[in-house]
Structures are given as structure tokens and as C-alpha cells.
Design goal:
The complex is a heterodimer. Chain A is mostly beta strands. Chain A is built from 4 helices and 23 strands. Chain B is built from 3 helices and 26 strands. Chain B has a 6-stranded antiparallel β-sheet, with no helix packed on it. Chain B has a 5-stranded antiparallel β-sheet with strand order 20-19-22-15-25, with no helix packed on it. Chain B is globular. The chains are: A mainly beta, B mainly beta.
Chain lengths: ~400, ~450
């Protein structure tokens, strides 16, 4: 009988191994060989750089588990409006392929009696707290195991919809960092602390064979196409334009840029700081530049980026409808990610000039304006780009995200 | 090698047309190096947030008379992200349907649906889909952005010497000979595909920017702008063009047959997208669409436990096949198998077809066109019971063809409360997520230049 039991155990183990092997093969058909951050694949860290609840604009957050296994996530709201980057965290549990959603102002409670077609309908993913009024910052979610330790299974994706009280909406995709499931604390650059997440996975480290590269590295360059600041909208803005809405030059396009550092120590409440350089190219191949530094969170209208006196983003200086801006961190500094949001100002009977535009802590609230958010393009990776020339990363350039111990 | 390094640093070496010969040689060198795997560290991407060698703008709309809704036009942007002069060939696909009784009248499945109050065709006529193509080419100087509105196109690019308002670029660079075709009709619904080409021969080419290992130098955006004059409201939604990088970035075969193993088509205008002999990154196996279900009511602006603003959401999906024959204008059909998950982890499924171009409200994928029957759709909150859903859209692979597709989603929010100061919809557009790849290739055929 004991032998039979042993055989049965072996048979079960063997069957399980075959099953797992088969599952692995099936799963591999959908495995993406991606080593860079992006806004279109699922990942193990997802970042929503722009979340707002200021009484005028609210944010609808959508997160989904794209995998066929249960997914756990540890999420962090980081409030950039306070200047201190206060952090509030919570946990999510998503069943296979489960989508979920909530609004920043309301969060999501756990209530089995939500019924159907209501905001709380469906399996509640956990208690999601509301953000305080005046919140202006980011949401970051890290995939973890049930015990709260980081888990690189690349199952998370997300979207954010910014909605103004009068109904205007604007959407972007969360930025996903791929985790390397083969790498644990064996990454040679790891401090050994499993909660110290290194953004050092690149095509080079992925192929190095030394079991290195934990999460995809931040981009080296953000590629940012935008309308020159304040230029008249080519469709709405003049009597000769196709839609011909505005005849007095009162339909400018403005753009707001939001950046967050990739580096972030959520355990010690030490936000990352970085100085970024802007290289602005107009349609005549003329090149202008600007720079600015920030800690934790940057949200600026383009005309507010230094130097203020001769702003490199304005239509008056650039002289063309659109421009192409390359955004690089200063030498020796970590990477940044971000999103942009255009606003088409439309007040037919009033001049719509820069006095109507938002400021560092408030998004455009121009009545009647139409906002459209979009993800920035990226190029290269910060980890490989910032080396000493021999492939060794420069000190301080490897981006870390440190999360609190579970 | 010093020359290569100079270019890698992004200096002005390649910024003039005089550099074309040197660049051609350099491209060969780079391609060969990549082909033998000396670098072997890059990976070509299919993405909408990376520069690429092929761009697809899945949806362009022009309707300045407001026949199908508020007056609409589309603003398009394209940029050369590299430090080199590049050529671009673009193919504007007109997928506007017309009435069978009057080919001058445009229509959609929705306008002709049962119960529609906006019929364009006679009650006995059908709305007939069509596909035609107009192409144009341009030369972009280094790092040059260009924009235009779809209705007007561009007669001259900014650095065209023929442009009375034009200038001459640094080192004499110019956009001479470049123009952008206006849409051939108004209303217009369709897509735009742009392929990076050599600025001299106008044959398909890899990118030149070493920062992305020559994966391609094009990026683009489209903004659909509407003007609801009745309600005195404008609206805008924006998405990134979908990009396919050259496989040179993988150490693979490039579109100029650089580093190829002989299995690629001899015709340089026949492009293999994906597969074992890929010249460009393959289209994804599965598109992942997260959206709020049609008919869902979102409540925002929660003050002390009470929502002060709400809206009803409906979404449109636009899909175009990756295989396109711009030479013989042969359409490609793809079958889509779609799994839909709600917040209860419940799964439903449906399937549909795409021929050349398809824009469809989500609830019309599995029910008749128009609002009739929408509440029986698996994309509708009335069936699913939860606000959010995840759809996995898999294009069925053929025996010899990938049948890949790309697309975008648009969501339209109609305010309910407060008593709307904005008595019109507001909309968003978003790029779809994706995963996996096909075994076979998609094929894109360009007409000879």
C-alpha cells in the first residue's frame, strides 16, 4: 500500500510536471521579448505619471491583470502637490484576466452588495483609498507575491482617464516596466534587499548571461512632438481653416508636460531629483534649448519651462506650427518618464491667451477647452547610456525604486 | 570606424544630401555588422512609443459638413527623429463607404442601420464599402517635424525652395519635391501608412539612428478634432501612430536586403513584416483592449461620498490589417477572435472580420449596426454587469500569412450630471496594448516609385 502511495505520488508529480511544461509552452506563445519600458505591453511595474483630483478634474484609473494566474500588486499614490511627495499605499488582488477601475476621488471600497452596473460591481480588488482633494501626483503599482515580495510576472497594464467636471476627458496609457522573471537578488548590482528594485534590464544586460537586469531601464531620451506653445490651432483657428470656428486668433493650442523621475525611494520617503535638458527643433531645422530641475514630480505648461524670458517652446520664438523636442536627463543623472496633454482653447467671444492657462499645480481648467493626453515616445535606455565608456554604470545613474518591506 | 562613431554621436555628418553615398556605404557596414551578430544586443519593437521604419495611423476622419456628427478634421504630425536626411513614402487609404444608389453620397453602417435618423442612402440602397489609395512622398531633414490637416494636406513642406514662405535648412537641406496629399473626398474615413525610404532612390530603408540600432526614424501622432457648433463645444482626441521597426535592429534582415539570407522577396518594394525572414517587426498576436463597457455610467468628482458628475460611455474600435498591397489594391481579410472578461472574471467571446479597414462601435461587433440590439452585446454593461472589461483580440493566423492587425480605440463620454454645461460628448483615443507574435509574415507591397 505504501508502494502504491509512492507510485501515485510519482505519477501525480510526473503528470504535474508534464502539465506545467505544457502550460509553459502555451504561455510562451504570448511572451514578449521586450526589455524596454513602454506603454503598450503589460509589465511588473506600471506608472501613471499624472493623477489629479483637484475639485475640477478627477481621474478614472483602470488596471487589468493580463495573465491567467492571480496577480497581486502593491500600489503607491505619491502626492506631488504638497512638495513633500507624501505617499499612500494599498494592495490589489486581481483574478485571472480581471480588469478593475476606480476614480481617484472616491477610491473603491469592498462591498459584496454593489450589485450590477455600479461603480463597485465586480470582484473588489481590495480597499483602494480615495486621494485627498488637491491631489496632483503619480500612481505606481508593483506586482508582488501574496506575501508582498516583488514578483516579476509582467501581468499588469493600465490606463488613466482625466475627466473635468464639465465633461471633458483625456486619456493616456500607464507606462510599464518589464520585470525579468529569471533575475532575483542575484543581479550583480543588487543590494541584496529584495525590495530594492533596479531598473537595469536592457537588451545588453538581458543577453549578458550573468543573470542580471531586474526591471527594464528607464529611457535615455524622451521624444516629444508638440504644437508650439500658443500657436493657433490649424483646424479651428482661423477663418480659412477647415472648421473655421475662431476668427480672432483665440483658439491657441497649449501643451502641459508631466515628468516623474524613475528613481524613487518609497521606504525612506526620498523622492528622486533630476535635471532635464530640452533640445527643441522647429520645422525649419532650427534648434533651441532649455533646462529645468525638479524633485519627485514636474507638471508645467511648456511656456513655464525655463528660461522664462525667452521660452524655447513658444510659437512666437519657434515660428512654426509644430516642434520636436528631445528630453534628456543631465549627465550622471537617472532617467525620467512622462506624459503630455494638449489643450485646445476655445472661448469664441473672449481672447484665450496665456492668462487662462494652468500653472504648476493645476491642470488646464479653461471652460470649453478640449484636452487630449498622449504618451511620449522613448529612445535608448538610461542604464546603458550613462556608463563610463567601458560598460560600467556611472555611480548614481542606475535607477532604483525602493518599496517598503511587506 | 571613426566615421561610424561620429554618426553614432549624432553629429552633423549626415545632415546633407551630399552624405547619401557615405550613408549608403555606412548603412551597409552597419547592416553587415548587425547581421553577423557583432552587436546582437538590440531588439526590434512593434510599438507606438518608439521611432520606427513603418508608421500606421489607423484612423483619419474628415467631415467638415458634419454629415456623420460634429464637424471633424484630423491633424497629423510626423517627425524624423534622426540626425540624417530621410525619405518617406506614404499611402492614404480611403475607406469611405458610399451609397449603392448614389456613389457621390458617403455613408456608414450606422447611418443606414435600422431606425437611423441620419440615413444618407435611399431606403432600398446599400452602403457599399470601398478601398482606394493615394500616395505621396516627402524628404525630411534631420530632426524635422511636419504637420498638416487631413483636409488640406500640404502643397509645400517648410523647407521647400518652391514655398514662397519657405526657408533653406542648415547646410542647404531642403524638402524639395515633397508634398502631402489632401484627402480625396469629404467626408473621408481611412488610414495612413508611411514607410521610411532612402531619400535618393525612395526604396524602403532601415533607420539611421544608432540610438535605436537603425530600427527606424519615424514617429507620428494624429489628433481628431471636432467642432460641435450647435453646442458651441470643441473636442479633441489623440493617439500615436503605430510603428514597426526594421529588423536590422535585431541583427536581422533589413528592407534593403542587407544581411539577408536570400529568402526575402527580390522586389525591394515587397516588405516582409514578421516571420522567420522578417524585414520588419511582426504585428502582434493579440491586441488587448481595456475599456469601460458600452452604456456604462462613470461617476466622478466625489465630494464627501457623493458623486457630482457622471457620464455614459460608448467606444469605437478601429482595426486595419498589417498586410496591405498598395500595388494591386488587393484587400486583406483577417478574422478576429475576441475574448471579453468582466470584473467578475467571467469570459464571453465573439468573432468578426476585418477587410482592409474596419471602424465599428464595440456593441455592433456582435449585434446589428445601430443602437438596436446594443444591450444584447457582450461589450455592453447590460450584459456584463460591471463597468470595466478586458478584451483580447486575436487575429487568426493563416497557413502562409500572419493576418496581423493593428488598431486604436476611441471612447465617447456623454455627460449626464450635473446639468451639463457641456451638452455634447467628449472623447478620448488610446493605443491598444498587445502581446505575442505570429509565426508567419505579413506582407506589405508598395508600388514602384
Amino acid at each position: 500500500m505504501r508502494m502504491m502511495t509512492g507510485n501515485r505520488v510519482l505519477w501525480v508529480l510526473g503528470a504535474a510536471a508534464v502539465g506545467i511544461s505544457a502550460l509553459a509552452r502555451v504561455a510562451s506563445a504570448d511572451v514578449d521579448q521586450v526589455t524596454t519600458e513602454d506603454a503598450q505591453h503589460a509589465g511588473s511595474i506600471i506608472v501613471f505619471p499624472k493623477v489629479i483630483w483637484d475639485g475640477t478634474r478627477d481621474t478614472i484609473i483602470q488596471i487589468a491583470n493580463t495573465g491567467n494566474l492571480l496577480a497581486f500588486a502593491h500600489c503607491f499614490y505619491v502626492n506631488g502637490a504638497t512638495g513633500q511627495c507624501d505617499e499612500t499605499d494599498f494592495d490589489l488582488v486581481l483574478t485571472r484576466q480581471q480588469p478593475t477601475q476606480w476614480t481617484a476621488s472616491a477610491g473603491r471600497g469592498v462591498n459584496p452588495n454593489d450589485g450590477f452596473q455600479n461603480p463597485g460591481s465586480g470582484f473588489d480588488p481590495g480597499l483602494v483609498p480615495p486621494v485627498p482633494l488637491g491631489f496632483f501626483g503619480e500612481l505606481k503599482c508593483v506586482q508582488v507575491n501574496e506575501d508582498g515580495s516583488p514578483f516579476r510576472a509582467n501581468q499588469l497594464k493600465g490606463e488613466a482617464i482625466l475627466r473635468r467636471s464639465d465633461g471633458d476627458v483625456s486619456e493616456y496609457n500607464a507606462i510599464a516596466f518589464r520585470g525579468n522573471p529569471d533575475t532575483n537578488s542575484s543581479d550583480p548590482r543588487s543590494s541584496g534587499d529584495p525590495n530594492d528594485l533596479l531598473l537595469d534590464l536592457t537588451p545588453r544586460t538581458d543577453s549578458s548571461g550573468d543573470d542580471s537586469g531586474m526591471y527594464s531601464a528607464c529611457p535615455d531620451t524622451l521624444l516629444f512632438n508638440h504644437f508650439t506653445y500658443g500657436v493657433e490651432d490649424p483646424v479651428l483657428g482661423s477663418s480659412s481653416a477647415p472648421l473655421g470656428r475662431c476668427t480672432n486668433g483665440n483658439c491657441p493650442v497649449t501643451t502641459e508636460l508631466t515628468l516623474v523621475p524613475c528613481q524613487e525611494d518609497l521606504e525612506n520617503q526620498a523622492p528622486g531629483s533630476v535635471r532635464v535638458l530640452f533640445s527643441v527643433h522647429n520645422e525649419f531645422e532650427e534648434n533651441f534649448s532649455a533646462s529645468t530641475g525638479f524633485s519627485c514630480f514636474l507638471n508645467l505648461q511648456l511656456n513655464q519651462i525655463a528660461p522664462a524670458g525667452a521660452n524655447a517652446f513658444t510659437a512666437g520664438l519657434l515660428g512654426t506650427v509644430t516642434a520636436y523636442t528631445r528630453i534628456n536627463p543631465s549627465s550622471g543623472q537617472g532617467g525620467v518618464i512622462g506624459v503630455a496633454e494638449e489643450s485646445r482653447c476655445d472661448i469664441p467671444d473672449q481672447p484665450c491667451n496665456t492668462t487662462y492657462l494652468g500653472n504648476a499645480t493645476a491642470s488646464p481648467v479653461i471652460p470649453g477647452s478640449a484636452n487630449a493626453a498622449f504618451n511620449l515616445h522613448t529612445e535608448g535606455n538610461r542604464f546603458d547610456a550613462a556608463t563610463d565608456g567601458n560598460g560600467t554604470p556611472l555611480a548614481g545613474v542606475t535607477d532604483h525604486i525602493v518599496i517598503p518591506a511587506p | 570606424m571613426s566615421l561610424l562613431l561620429a554618426v553614432r554621436k549624432g553629429e552633423d555628418v549626415m545632415s546633407t544630401m551630399k552624405g547619401n553615398l557615405r550613408r549608403t556605404i555606412l548603412t551597409g557596414v552597419v547592416g553587415t555588422v548587425l547581421a553577423v551578430g557583432a552587436m546582437g544586443t538590440a531588439r526590434a519593437d512593434f510599438a507606438s512609443d518608439k521611432a520606427a521604419a513603418i508608421l500606421i495611423y489607423p484612423k483619419i476622419v474628415v467631415d467638415t459638413s458634419g454629415i456623420f456628427g460634429p464637424k471633424t478634421n484630423t491633424e497629423l504630425q510626423i517627425t524624423n527623429t534622426s540626425n540624417s536626411v530621410i525619405g518617406v513614402r506614404c499611402f492614404l487609404v480611403d475607406a469611405t463607404s458610399h451609397c449603392s444608389d448614389d456613389p457621390t453620397k458617403a455613408c456608414t453602417a450606422e447611418t443606414e442601420a435600422l431606425g437611423s435618423t441620419n440615413r444618407q442612402c435611399d431606403s432600398t440602397a446599400r452602403c457599399v464599402p470601398q478601398w482606394s489609395e493615394n500616395d505621396f512622398k516627402m524628404t525630411l531633414t534631420k530632426r524635422q517635424p511636419v504637420s498638416w490637416n487631413a483636409l488640406d494636406g500640404l502643397s509645400f513642406l517648410p523647407l521647400d525652395p518652391s514655398n514662397p514662405a519657405g526657408k533653406v535648412g542648415t547646410g542647404g537641406q531642403s524638402n524639395a519635391g515633397s508634398s502631402v496629399r489632401a484627402v480625396p473626398e469629404d467626408p473621408f474615413v481611412g488610414a495612413l501608412t508611411c514607410v521610411e525610404v532612402d531619400p535618393s532612390s525612395f526604396l524602403p530603408d532601415s533607420g539611421f539612428d544608432p540610438a535605436d540600432n537603425a530600427g527606424g526614424d519615424l514617429k507620428g501622432e494624429a489628433t481628431i478634432v471636432t467642432d460641435d457648433a450647435d453646442q458651441d463645444v470643441v473636442d479633441a482626441r489623440k493617439y500615436n501612430a503605430v510603428g514597426m521597426q526594421s529588423s536590422v535592429a535585431n541583427g536581422g534582415c533589413g528592407p534593403n536586403n542587407i544581411g539577408c539570407d536570400g529568402n526575402q522577396p527580390a522586389d525591394p518594394n515587397t516588405l516582409l513584416i514578421g516571420g522567420s525572414d522578417a524585414e520588419y517587426t511582426g504585428c502582434p498576436n493579440v491586441l488587448i483592449l481595456d475599456s469601460l463597457f458600452d452604456g456604462a455610467t462613470v461617476q466622478t468628482h466625489n465630494f464627501a461620498g457623493s458623486s457630482k458628475s457622471s457620464a455614459t460611455v460608448n467606444s469605437d474600435l478601429t482595426i486595419v490589417p498589417c498586410s496591405q498591397d498598395f500595388n494591386t489594391l488587393t484587400t486583406t481579410t483577417a478574422v478576429l477572435q475576441i475574448l471579453v472578461f468582466n470584473e467578475f472574471e467571467q469570459r464571453l467571446s465573439t468573432s468578426t472580420r476585418v477587410n482592409c479597414f474596419r471602424e465599428v462601435p464595440l456593441s455592433d461587433i456582435d449585434t446589428p449596426a445601430g443602437i438596436s440590439g446594443d444591450k444584447e452585446s457582450i461589450f455592453n454593461v447590460a450584459v456584463e454587469g460591471t463597468l470595466a472589461g478586458q478584451a483580447r483580440i486575436r487575429s487568426v493566423e493563416g497557413a502562409n500569412a500572419a493576418n496581423g492587425v493593428v488598431g486604436i480605440v476611441e471612447s465617447f463620454f456623454t455627460p449626464i450630471t450635473p446639468s451639463p454645461p457641456r451638452d455634447s460628448f467628449s472623447s478620448v483615443a488610446a493605443n491598444l496594448h498587445f502581446t505575442g507574435s505570429h509565426i508567419n509574415a505579413d506582407t506589405m507591397v508598395l508600388p514602384a516609385n
